[in-house]
């Protein structure tokens, strides 16, 4: 994947508004840093996936919550390097790339530490989450959306090919074996990733990137990579990713098409409004059926039971929650031991399987409201108000962002430290933030080609 008409030497400064002539070695260093960062995130902190199962699921919830020291050192090291690079242009460049909306959510999460069940665990987790946010946003602003898109394409291409080769050449390594404690995992592909859920999420994002480029540029390379992505995604059996990847890819393509004229732009977002309204009408008409589904704890592969436990706690502490990162995996004080005592299988759950409910149960109603406003409504507004000048690249990231928004209805990735979909969602949000308007010196028109 290449982006035409991009000058070789100048790159955007951290604020992303004007051009600066960074030394070539520094640009290459930032590119290497981004590749290492994403590779580490995609493999969940390791390139060696050990799938021996967990003999005692209760050990997960009784864990002290100390965290992974090597992971913390890796991300702190990247953050320090980026801080030093940003400071070269003045201290204001340390914070200028970060949208104010992100600051607000992070501030509330830090506030929640004061009432967290285990404050020191909560503080460590919110600091790590903040470091991930800072590192992702800063490096996107430093390299610019053009170069980041190129590198993201190449990294995803590497993992798709490597994952497929690992399944063919090393099936005992790349496929969940019968030793798994969770029998539902047996036979599912995970490739280089340690778990099929991670593999399915990353591969779905790959399908969006390759599918978008194949459609836009008529690229045979992207078409081949798209086919490989679809095959591997089917092998992972990731139902959530499989269910939403096609609509999100289609939405990205429609975004690019709609921004050709104001009339088409209006029709697209009017269609989105009508679709959401239609869902609301559907929910009202079929309320009895939906109630029956959600009354069954086994619905959505057991997620309803998890959500019920979470909502029980929210009823007790609606405005504060348990404190950021202070509900699951915090040891003997975990609320799950008290509320979910009649369902021991819940002791092995690490999150709410819903990013929005996770923010509700850990940061209260204010945290949930801020999360929806800052990571759903504000980015949507940014995409809507973006200058048509950027429609080609914005269409790609609109599809990625939409995937992340919907994905978090069944998985917990928003504000969840270095979860894969969350990091890519941050990249998409930052691209939308940088492209809300076109200013002099922001660079040439974006053209995706072969």
From TrEMBL:
- Bilayer-crossing residues are 29-52, 72-91, 98-118, 124-144, 151-175, 195-212, 219-236, 242-259, 266-291, 365-384, 396-414
Q: Topology with regard to the membrane? A: Multi-pass membrane protein
| A Pfam family hit | Wzy_C
Annotated GO molecular function terms are: ligase activity
PANTHER family hit by this protein? EXOQ-LIKE PROTEIN, TEICHURONIC ACID BIOSYNTHESIS PROTEIN TUAE
Protein source organism: Rhizobium quercicola
- Enumerate the subcellular locations listed in this protein's record, separating them with semicolons: Membrane
GO CC, any one term: membrane
The superkingdom of the source organism is: Bacteria
Question: Is-annotated flag, keyword Transport?
Answer: no
Q: What is this protein called?
A: O-antigen ligase family protein
O-antigen ligase-related domain residues are 223-371
Print the keywords alphabetically.
Ligase, Membrane, Transmembrane, Transmembrane helix
Kindly indicate whether the keyword Signal belongs to this entry.
no
């Amino acid at each position: 994947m290449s982006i035409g008409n991009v000058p070789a030497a100048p790159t955007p400064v951290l604020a992303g508004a004007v051009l600066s002539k960074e030394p070539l070695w520094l640009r290459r260093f930032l590119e290497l840093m981004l590749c290492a960062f994403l590779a580490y995130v995609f493999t969940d902190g390791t390139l060696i996936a050990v799938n021996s199962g967990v003999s005692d699921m209760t050990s997960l919830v009784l864990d002290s919550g100390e965290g992974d020291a090597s992971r913390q050192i890796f991300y702190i090291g990247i953050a320090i390097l980026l801080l030093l690079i940003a400071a070269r242009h003045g201290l204001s460049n340390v914070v200028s790339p970060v949208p104010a909306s992100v600051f607000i959510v992070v501030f509330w999460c830090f506030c929640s530490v004061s009432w967290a069940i285990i404050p020191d665990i909560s503080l460590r987790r919110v600091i790590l989450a903040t470091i991930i946010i800072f590192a992702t946003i800063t490096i996107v602003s430093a390299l610019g959306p053009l170069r980041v898109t190129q590198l993201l394409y190449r990294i995803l291409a590497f993992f798709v090919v490597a994952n497929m080769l690992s399944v063919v050449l090393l099936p005992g390594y790349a496929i969940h074996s019968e030793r798994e404690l969770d029998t539902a995992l047996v036979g599912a592909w995970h490739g280089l990733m340690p778990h099929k859920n991670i593999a399915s999420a990353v591969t779905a994002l790959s399908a969006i990137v390759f599918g978008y480029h194949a459609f836009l540029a008529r690229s045979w390379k992207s078409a081949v990579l798209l086919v490989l992505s679809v095959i591997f995604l089917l092998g992972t059996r990731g139902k959530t990713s499989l269910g939403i990847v096609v609509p999100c890819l289609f939405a990205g393509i429609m975004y690019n098409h709609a921004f050709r004229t104001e009339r088409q732009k209006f029709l697209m977002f009017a269609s989105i409004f009508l679709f959401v309204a239609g869902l609301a009408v559907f929910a009202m008409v079929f309320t009895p059926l939906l109630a029956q589904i959600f009354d069954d704890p086994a619905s959505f592969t057991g997620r309803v039971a998890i959500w019920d436990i979470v909502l029980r706690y929210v009823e007790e502490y609606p405005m504060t929650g348990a404190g950021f990162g202070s509900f699951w995996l915090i040891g003997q004080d975990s609320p799950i031991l008290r509320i979910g005592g009649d369902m021991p299988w819940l002791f092995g759950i690490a999150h709410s399987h819903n990013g929005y409910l996770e923010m509700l149960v850990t940061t209260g109603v204010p945290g949930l409201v801020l999360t929806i406003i800052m990571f759903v409504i504000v980015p949507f507004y940014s995409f809507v108000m973006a200058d048509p000048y950027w429609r080609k690249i914005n269409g790609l990231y609109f599809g990625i962002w939409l995937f992340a928004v919907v994905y978090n209805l069944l998985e917990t990735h928003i504000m969840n430290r270095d979860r894969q979909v969350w990091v890519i969602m941050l990249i998409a949000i930052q691209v939308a933030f940088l492209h809300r308007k076109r200013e002099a010196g922001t660079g040439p028109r974006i053209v995706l080609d072969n």
